[in-house]
Design a protein that fits this description.
By secondary structure, the protein is mainly alpha-helical. The chain contains three helices and two strands. Helices cover 47% and strands 11% of the residues.
Length: 95
């Protein structure tokens, strides 16, 4: 049988207690067509939800690209200098 003549088959899956089917070519299974999704535009946000969205979930500020590039190259130098200073201090106290 040629691939063009075959009828696309449904793929069934099971995740935990949920079962479903995947239908190729963009068709939906009959259960999904008959279901009704609620209109979420009529739900009003509370004050706490607005506060969370505007302050807690906003994008965090970050330094610029040049600042991060300098920090990446300066960090090993600073850490090596700190290591040498710590060795010097330990040598002073060991005497």
């Amino acid at each position: 049988m040629k691939p063009e003549e075959r009828e696309p088959r449904e793929i069934t899956y099971r995740i935990g207690w949920k079962r479903g089917t995947i239908v190729p070519n963009g068709r939906r299974p009959p259960a999904a067509v008959s279901g009704h999704s609620p209109d979420m535009s009529i739900i009003r946000e509370s004050r706490m939800q607005r506060f969370n969205r505007s302050y807690l979930w906003r994008k965090a500020p970050s330094p610029g690209h040049r600042t991060l590039q300098v920090a990446v190259f300066a960090m090993p130098v600073l850490l090596f200098a700190l290591f040498l200073w710590m060795v010097y201090e330990l040598a002073q106290h060991a005497r």
